[in-house]
Specification:
5 helices, single chain, globular
Length: about 180
Amino acid sequence: MVDYDAIYREDPGKWSNSERDDFVSDNLEEPASLLDIGCGNGHTIKHLATCWPNTKFYGVDISQVAIDIAQKKTPQATFARGSNMDIDVDVITLMGVAEHFENLKDLENYRAKIVYLEVPNCLSYSNSKEEGFRKNGEQMEWHLRRETWEKTIEDCGFEILERFDGGRPSWEFVWVLKPRK
């Protein structure tokens, strides 16, 4: 298993990407509240807080070191260690997280008016072009085509409102979703 605390101790700015954060703010309307699942060091919340000053922000991550960094960056947000918060929010962001779910049906657990889902195109940097769940370095992740992701999303009870190409393999597949009633 990956030691995310060690990763963030060694590189507190790990996975920060302003272009990626701009993509989120450019493609969503300002919500009243937002929960960032797998918020890491809080870079996305910090960026969105500058764009959306009236939004209440929440973030969760499995790394306590990342949560401590995030809280210092954006003290007006609420952060917690874990994989979810039992709160109602308008928007949930899952960015570079869902591909690590051992069971993709876990997507059903993330409900809000809008879900912003972003996953990498792991097949683009894989030696094998076969879809599946596999170990890639220290991490386990799903290597799926966009069509397979979309079938999974729909099977988990979501309607796809918009599809985007994030522009880079590391965040190529992006969707704006809403739960089906």
